[in-house]
Design brief:
3-stranded antiparallel sheet; single chain; 32% strand; alpha+beta; 4-stranded mixed sheet; 7 strands; binds calcium ion; Immunoglobulin-like
Length: 114
């Protein structure tokens, strides 16, 4: 009987250890989320300097805590205000465990005479 109790205790201890390690290895397991600020798609007047409104980002951890990742968002754009056309602004971010959010894209339409 004592032997069985020991085995059960060992199994329980290893289960707990295993769960602990799993969480550590996989980070918090949730992707951060990016939300674009302002219109998408948006129109922009030709020859007027373009300033993107940006995006906010946050991450919800396994413990339910929300982390603001807005300052870590990487914004890239190829908007050329001297030429009429459709351009893209992309937003990317990773959380503390290196998990990347789904990339968000804003379409900027540079138009003549908005
Ligand atoms: Ca996360």
């Amino acid at each position: 009987m004592k032997y069985i109790v020991s085995i059960v205790t060992l199994v329980l201890v290893f289960s707990l250890l295993n769960t602990g390690c799993k969480k550590k290895d996989e980070g918090d397991g949730t992707k951060p989320v990016i939300i674009i600020i302002g219109a998408n798609p948006t129109s922009h007047a030709l020859d007027v300097p373009y300033t993107d409104l940006g995006a906010i980002a946050f991450d919800i951890s396994s413990t339910g805590d929300t982390t603001d990742l807005t300052s870590s968002v990487i914004v890239q754009d190829n908007v050329d205000v001297t030429r009429v056309g459709d351009y893209q602004v992309t937003y990317n971010v990773k959380d503390a465990s290196g998990l990347a959010a789904d990339e968000k894209i804003r379409t900027v339409k540079v138009v003549n005479g908005k």
